[in-house]
Design a protein that fits this description.
18 helices; alpha/beta
Length: about 500
């Protein structure tokens, strides 16, 4: 704990030196980051297997591979993102340079989550590096093997003066949050998110909170049931349901519920066999505490499928609950496990009413072929993201912002949105001593009069097409050349006539 102040002070000293600002430095660090992931993929996968019994394919598909594609996408666009933007002008600034500079924020803290301990810790770090910041990285202590591999690899591949890993639990995190950062990004529970937000508020530090919530999934009777079941249960079962954007609960009619359960039994056993505990592709719950929390959710519930558990292995099988009462404990908090409760509703309008009566979720899913029903959900519910006829896939699209709204979080990242999250947009005007410009703006100087007021009001109201003014000098040169050519021809004709 005593070293945290030194770590942050050293990072700030390095940032103030300007070391991280150049495109060349950022590019080099991102390429080193990519090399770190590619050269140590097996070691990283082993850490995920230790923490979550995550199979190799799932590790590469949901964590390791996404880091590489994120870096590739950023490197393709970084130089363009770093360049100052040129917004429109008005008459007051028509002769000035108007720019928006993309400044790094400084020293940022990235606090990762345990459910995808590699991806959700390192993906934001990639964005912070691309924006030119120094980064203090705090992996989750709940996934210790993954935290240790991050602490081992980062200093081997990235500049240790700019990027530091801090390990520890609640006590260490509490001490770390006493330091002043220029931005804090946290991924995890809403409960801890409130604590992070309160700590950041003491220093007026901006935060990005990637939290969670109960993400709904509505299914109607127009769907291809086999496809819908596979996509929904994949979203629920991957990582043993420990996914912030997993479909938390289903809404459907009684008829759809019965058909869904019947088809889901076939699909789950096709994937994992009749007893998923023997499957090499099925994960485990991360800790005893989380396992016991899930176990309590089965009390007094109508189990239509599954319910098998093995506490010693922290195995919790895929489980479907039917005819769930909205007041049942399983509907009171985010499940974060492989339990799918189904709440029956009469129609889409009742489902929307049910969703809107609760906190805004991190994401929402609707399964229907009916375009009107799709639009009804997209236009009448609010969530961090939304997907029609699939689950989870929005996380892998680099051009989409990933983030929550309300109780499910604030801010967003991925691709350009990561760059923007860790960047300060500095508004800038560069003025010269042009006499015409001074004359135009001189109405602002005392002594004031009604005439001057009228001039200033007119100047402030009129906007100019920036694209035109950008090329105005070229247009003026062309016009001057054309005028000179016409004058020369007229002179030539007069000379010849004489």
């Amino acid at each position: 704990m005593s070293n945290f102040h030194h770590v942050v002070s050293k990072a700030r000293e390095t940032f103030d030196s300007g070391k991280t600002r150049s495109y060349e430095f950022r590019k080099k660090q991102l390429l080193n980051f990519k090399r770190m992931v590619e050269e140590n993929g097996d070691k990283i996968a082993q850490s995920l297997e230790q923490d979550l019994k995550k199979c190799k394919m799932e590790s590469f598909f949901t964590e390791i591979g996404l880091l590489v594609t994120e870096i590739d996408y950023i490197l393709e666009n970084l130089k363009q993102w770093m360049a100052p933007a040129e917004p429109e002008k008005n008459l007051i600034t028509m002769l000035d340079k108007v720019r928006i500079y993309n400044d790094p924020k400084g020293v940022v803290l990235v606090m990762g989550a345990w459910n995808y301990p590699i991806n959700l810790t390192l993906m934001p770090v990639i964005g912070a590096i691309s924006a030119g910041n120094c980064v203090v990285i705090k992996p989750s202590e709940v996934a210790p093997a993954s935290a240790n591999v991050i602490a081992e690899l980062i200093p081997k591949y990235l500049d240790p003066e700019c990027y530091q890993v801090c390990l520890g639990g609640v006590a260490e995190t509490t001490e770390l949050l006493k330091e002043k950062f220029d931005h804090i990004m946290y991924t995890g529970s809403t409960v801890v998110g409130r604590i992070i937000y309160a700590a950041a508020n003491k220093n007026l530090t901006p935060v990005t909170l990637e939290l969670g919530g109960k993400s709904p999934c509505y299914v109607d009777d127009t769907v291809n049931l086999n496809y819908a079941v596979k996509r929904i249960m994949w979203g629920k079962c991957i990582n043993a349901g420990q996914t912030c954007i997993a479909p938390d609960y289903m809404l459907c009619t009684k008829e759809v519920q019965d058909k869904f359960v019947k088809e889901a039994k076939k699909v789950i056993e096709e994937w994992y066999g009749s007893n998923a505990i023997t499957s090499p592709d099925y994960c485990r719950i991360v800790s005893d505490r989380h396992f016991k929390r899930l176990e309590k959710m089965l009390q007094n519930a109508e189990i239509a499928y599954g319910g098998q558990i093995e506490p010693k292995e922290r195995y919790f099988g895929p489980t479907i609950l039917t005819n769930v009462n909205p007041n049942h404990p399983v509907m009171k908090e985010e499940i974060f496990g492989p339990i799918m409760p189904i709440v029956t509703v009469a129609n889409a309008h009742e489902a929307i009413k049910f969703i809107n009566a609760r906190d805004r979720p991190l994401t929402s899913y609707v399964f229907t072929k009916d375009k009107q029903i799709q639009d009804l959900f997209l236009e009448n519910t609010i969530s961090g993201s939304a997907v029609v006829n699939d689950t989870l896939i929005q996380f892998g699209v680099h051009t989409l912002p990933f983030g929550g709204v309300g109780e499910s979080g604030m801010g967003a990242y991925h691709g350009k949105y990561s760059f923007d999250t860790f960047t300060h947009k500095k508004s800038t005007i560069i003025k010269n001593y042009n006499s015409l410009g001074e004359k135009v703006a001189s109405a602002r100087y005392p002594p004031y009069s009604d005439r001057k007021l009228g001039v200033m009001q007119a100047l402030m109201r009129v906007k100019l097409n920036f694209g035109f003014f950008k090329y105005a000098p070229h247009a003026a040169l062309f016009a001057a050349g054309l005028a000179a050519g016409i004058a020369y021809n007229q002179y030539k004709e007069m000379f010849q006539a004489a």
